[in-house]
């Protein structure tokens, strides 16, 4: 009887650990309720309703041009990528096609945005694990890229630059030269970050064989982007469903092997190297266009038939387009692009006036986070931190 009573007293309930909410400068306002059996996670409950602003509903009370800045506030690390997707959706409703030089310019800054995103993802993940130096080096490089943002849009973060049906991108030869100089030295900066991390035994012990994802599991949760490609599945919308001029540019799709945290880290490093390769090709083509065209940046191609920026008629039409808004034909469209975090989609509906009738946003981070309870089950608490870092979540797009 005494032994039985002792055994009954030694039976403990699992402990509930409150993980978060985190500061927005980390991985967003994420709150996890973890049911722990000592260090092992038995179950988890993801709370994401801490940032909700009703972005989609707010956009339905705006004109098609006024809704653009909401894109910057979603994934606030990949601003121009989301502006671009929204612009493509509006241009499809308008049945408009951009010129070659505009398409090249967009690709250039889309790949700069991809580098910006992956630098933040890798270096903040390293900071989560305990490596401080890559964070400092990575942010020094991000500052240089933010300067390019500022030179073309006047803003470092919320650029509101790639606008629908507005094709005046004042790209000059000095900016091309400066971006070329950056790209030449950036590969060596990546080498330095890899010297610290890639073969570091502590780094590999924290990431290898942790958070393994299979192809079937990734597809069942509608994963995309680097998280999906880490499972060795070659799905990249720039190749599978080309947009802009990506089908005319040579680049490879990096793939993982095991689908673990280490693969997801290497995936983003390789993608940055491919982005450098894409940017170099685009800069060569833009440089050729500039040398052939003495009037680069002199004309503004808007929705009006007036092209010269100096004409009064053009100023009037420009004012009307940005204040009252332009009319969009009745219709519906869905456009998705390969954003740095995965497939980012915009669903737009118009009833034939200047206001958005309905908008639905497909954010890749929401699908990745929805699978977190399954990924972290039966792992230890330290692995939860490592996995969240490799999923690369930003709550602006998840809890929109």
What would you say about this model in short?
The chain has helices at 2-9, 55-59, 69-72, 79-94, 100-129, 133-153, 173-197, 201-207, 215-220, 225-229, 237-240, 261-292, 312-323, 364-370, 372-376, 381-391, 395-398; strands at 15-19, 31-37, 40-47, 331-339, 342-350, 358-362.
Textual characterization of the structure:
The chain has a single domain (2-293, 327-398), classed as Cytochrome-c3 Hydrogenase, chain B. It is 50% helix and 11% strand. It has helices at residues 2-9, 55-59, 69-72, 79-94, 100-129, 133-153, 173-197, 201-207, 215-220, 225-229, 237-240, 261-292, 312-323, 364-370, 372-376, 381-391, 395-398; strands at residues 15-19, 31-37, 40-47, 331-339, 342-350, 358-362. The strands form 2 sheets. A 3-stranded antiparallel β-sheet has the order 1-2-3. Strands 4-5-6 form a 3-stranded antiparallel β-sheet. A hairpin with a 2-residue loop joins β2 (31-37) and β3. α4 runs antiparallel to α5 and α5 (100-129) runs antiparallel to α6. The model is unreliable at 294-308 (pLDDT under 50).
């Amino acid at each position: 009887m005494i032994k039985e009573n002792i055994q009954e007293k030694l039976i403990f309930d699992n402990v509930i650990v409150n993980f978060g909410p985190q500061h927005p400068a980390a991985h967003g306002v994420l709150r996890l309720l973890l049911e722990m059996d000592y260090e092992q996670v038995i179950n988890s409950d993801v709370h994401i309703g801490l940032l909700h602003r009703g972005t989609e509903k707010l956009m339905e009370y705006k004109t098609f041009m006024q809704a653009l800045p909401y894109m910057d506030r979603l994934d606030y690390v990949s601003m121009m990528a989301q502006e671009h997707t929204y612009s493509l959706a509006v241009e499809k409703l308008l049945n408009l096609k951009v010129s070659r030089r505009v398409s090249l310019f967009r690709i250039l800054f889309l790949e700069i945005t991809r580098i910006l995103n992956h630098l933040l993802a890798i270096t903040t993940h390293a900071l989560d694990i305990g490596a401080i130096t890559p964070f400092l080096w990575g942010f020094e490089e991000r500052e240089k890229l933010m300067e390019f943002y500022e030179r073309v849009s006047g803003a470092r973060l919320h650029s509101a630059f790639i606008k629908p049906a507005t094709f005046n991108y004042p790209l000059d030869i000095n900016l091309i030269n400066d971006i070329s100089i950056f790209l030449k030295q950036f590969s060596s900066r990546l080498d330095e970050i890899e010297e610290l991390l890639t073969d570091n035994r502590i780094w590999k012990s924290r990431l290898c064989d942790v958070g393994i994802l299979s192809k079937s599991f990734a597809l069942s949760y509608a994963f995309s982007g680097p998280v999906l490609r880490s499972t060795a599945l070659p799905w990249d919308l720039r190749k599978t469903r080309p947009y802009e001029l990506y089908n005319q540019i040579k680049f490879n799709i990096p793939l993982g092997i095991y689908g673990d945290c280490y693969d997801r880290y290497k995936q983003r490093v390789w993608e940055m190297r491919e982005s450098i390769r894409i940017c170099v090709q685009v800069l060569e083509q833009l440089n050729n266009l500039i040398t052939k065209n003495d009037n680069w940046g002199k004309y503004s191609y808007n929705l009006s038939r007036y092209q010269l920026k100096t004409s009064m008629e053009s100023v009037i039409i420009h004012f009307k387009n940005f204040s009252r808004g332009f009319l969009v034909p009745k219709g519906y469209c869905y456009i998705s692009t390969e954003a740095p975090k995965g497939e980012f989609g915009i669903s737009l509906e118009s009833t034939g006036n200047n206001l958005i009738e309905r908008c639905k946003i497909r954010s890749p981070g929401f699908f990745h986070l929805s699978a977190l309870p399954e990924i972290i089950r039966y792992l230890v608490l330290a692995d939860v931190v490592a996995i969240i870092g490799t999923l690369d979540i930003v709550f602006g797009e998840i809890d929109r």
